[in-house]
């Protein structure tokens, strides 16, 4: 309990950042330019977090978790400070400031990966398994608080302070966590000789990065059949093909492949991947719709995100209690998948005439669907493997959810950019649309309000149409979730009257 506040602050740092930045994005784009690079501000952070998470865990085992945890906090704070200073035009060019921000966000993400993986690992070091659930419940509450408070804090900062404080606010919070944990955190000594699978980690990072670049650049920066995109696809396929035998031979693999023989684990990994698609896709584009199309302030935009976060938190708590009481869990991913698909369909119907309250109802439906899935997917993954694989199954499930978020933001960003260009072309013609698109890189609500009525109307309609198109694409991924959930095998929960240690063959193919 002495160090728990420091751990909570560290977790809140990692979770809060994306929520604050999402609300501030229209103002950031207005100053730095580069609307076409909007999704990369989120993608760089998520990608940095994803590729570093398994590496942080291995390094913590080898060199001591406390030191590595403190180092990750420092890296996160340095990245935050640099993000706040983005726009110095060191890179030059009209979008140089946005390119700097994207690079610094990747550094921030590297630190965030260490925060998230080590918080749960430190709780595992300090708390025996019998008591661990209540502490993880407290951390889940802190995560929910960050999800709810993030849009509010981001809106307040954007409306009343400079957007750069969306990043600077991390510095005092990080400093408090750093001092508290440096003084109070005392972990048991481990003498495990762990060999880090650096080759596997490098191959996995290259493969993931190449795939994200394909989804980001394909059909946007470069044609799908261009040599750039085909080369990236080749890099992704080759590195993944090498990665598989490397992991099979590794003493301490970054991603143990034998887990994928477990049917439930494989299904839950796929569901988590799709859940990441929905979560990050909604968070990234909803503030843009609310501020640019509906004309809400950044603060109101943050408030209007509350229905999604509150619904997810309430449903998640309800599902947790229901599972504890009944021991049954298979139905909840099914309900969650249907709810998520319904929410995406409702959001895809939005246009310039959609009022803010109606958007709030739609995103509450999406949040409820995610609430049925978030806690349940982790529980199923942990309960479907042997006790000795509990930790690695948890980290792998988190990894695939992060990968889904990274791919989702990239793909939705490409869909948005292409749709926006097509909408402008249909309204203004190809030549005028090209000029508007280039000038629209610095478009924000204030600049939009100063435009002539005809141009403003056309731009708002183009934005609304392209954002709605993003959610149409999201439906294609969301409808797969309940289909996959139907094949999950319900295994008695450990600790219940009929529970027993699950064997790999019990849930295999």
Unreliably modeled segments: 496-501, 504-509
Mean pLDDT: 76
Structural class assignment: mainly alpha
Largest sheet: none
Q: Which CATH top level class of the largest domain fits?
A: Mainly Alpha
Q: How many domain units?
A: 3
- Strand content is under 5%
H-E order: HHHHHHHHHHHHHHHHHHHH
Measured as a percent range, the helix fraction is over 70%
Q: What is the count of β-strands?
A: 0
How far apart are the first and last residues' alpha carbons, in Å? 43 Å
Which word captures the global form?
A: globular
- Helix count, per DSSP? 20
CATH topological fold name of the largest domain = Growth Hormone, Chain: A
Please identify which CATH superfamily of the largest domain we are dealing with.
Answer: MFS general substrate transporter like domains
C-alpha-based Rg, rounded = 22 Å
Q: In CATH terms, what is the architecture of the largest domain?
A: Up-down Bundle
Which helices and strands appear, and what pairs or packs with what?
Blueprint: H1 4-32, H2 38-63, H3 65-84, H4 96-126, H5 129-160, H6 165-168, H7 170-184, H8 198-217, H9 227-249, H10 263-293, H11 298-304, H12 306-326, H13 331-348, H14 356-383, H15 390-428, H16 430-439, H17 445-449, H18 453-478, H19 480-485, H20 504-507
Helix pairs in contact: 1-4, 1-5, 1-7, 1-10, 2-3, 2-4, 2-8, 2-15, 3-4, 3-7, 5-11, 5-12, 8-9, 8-15, 10-11, 10-14, 10-15, 10-18, 12-14, 13-14, 13-18, 14-15, 15-16, 15-18
């Amino acid at each position: 309990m002495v160090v728990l506040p420091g751990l909570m602050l560290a977790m809140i740092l990692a979770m809060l950042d994306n929520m604050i930045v999402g609300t501030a994005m229209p103002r950031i784009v207005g100053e730095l330019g580069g609307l076409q690079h909007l999704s990369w501000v989120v993608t760089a952070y998520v990608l940095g977090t994803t590729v570093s998470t398994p590496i942080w865990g291995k390094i913590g085992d080898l060199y001591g978790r406390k030191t590595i945890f403190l180092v990750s906090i420092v890296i996160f704070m340095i990245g935050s400070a640099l993000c706040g200073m983005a726009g110095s035009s060191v890179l030059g060019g009209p979008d140089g400031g946005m390119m700097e921000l994207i690079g610094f966000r990747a550094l921030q993400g590297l630190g965030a990966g260490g925060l998230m993986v080590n918080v749960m690992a430190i709780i595992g070091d300090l708390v025996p398994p019998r008591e661990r659930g209540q502490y993880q419940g407290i951390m889940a509450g802190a995560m929910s608080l960050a999800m709810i408070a993030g849009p509010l804090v981001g809106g307040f900062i954007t409306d009343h302070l400079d957007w750069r404080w969306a990043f600077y606010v991390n510095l005092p919070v990080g400093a408090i966590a750093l001092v508290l944990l440096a003084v109070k955190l005392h972990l048991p000594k481990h003498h495990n000789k762990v060999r880090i699978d650096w080759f596997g980690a490098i191959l996995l990072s290259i493969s993931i990065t190449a795939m994200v670049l394909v989804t980001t650049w394909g059909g946007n920066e470069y044609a799908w059949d261009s040599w750039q995109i085909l080369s990236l696809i080749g890099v992704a396929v080759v590195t993944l093909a090498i990665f598989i035998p490397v992991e099979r031979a590794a003493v301490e693999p970054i991603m143990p492949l034998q887990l994928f023989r477990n049917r439930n684990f494989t299904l839950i990994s796929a569901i988590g991947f799709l859940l990441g698609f929905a979560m990050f896709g909604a968070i990234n584009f909803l503030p843009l719709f609310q501020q640019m199309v509906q004309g809400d302030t950044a603060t109101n935009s943050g408030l209007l995100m509350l229905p999604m976060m509150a619904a997810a938190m309430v449903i998640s708590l309800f599902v947790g209690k229901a599972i504890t009481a009944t021991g049954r869990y298979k139905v909840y991913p099914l309900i969650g998948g249907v709810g998520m698909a319904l929410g995406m369909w409702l959001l895809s119907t939005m246009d310039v005439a959609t009022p803010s309250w109606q958007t709030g109802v739609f995103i509450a439906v999406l949040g409820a669907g995610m609430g049925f899935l978030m806690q349940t997917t982790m529980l199923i993954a942990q309960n479907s493997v042997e006790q000795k694989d509990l930790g690695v199954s948890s980290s792998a499930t988190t990894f695939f959810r992060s990968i889904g978020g990274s791919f989702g933001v990239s793909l939705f960003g490409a869909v948005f950019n292409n749709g926006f260009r097509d909408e402008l072309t249909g309204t203004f013609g190809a030549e005028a649309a090209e000029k508007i698109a280039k000038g629209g890189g610095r478009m924000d609500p204030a600049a939009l309000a100063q435009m002539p009525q005809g141009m403003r109307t056309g731009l708002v309609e183009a934005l609304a149409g392209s954002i709605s198109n993003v959610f149409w694409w999201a439906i294609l991924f969301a409808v797969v979730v309940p289909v996959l959930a139907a094949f999950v095998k319900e295994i008695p929960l450990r600790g219940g009257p009929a529970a027993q240690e699950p064997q790999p063959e019990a849930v295999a193919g």
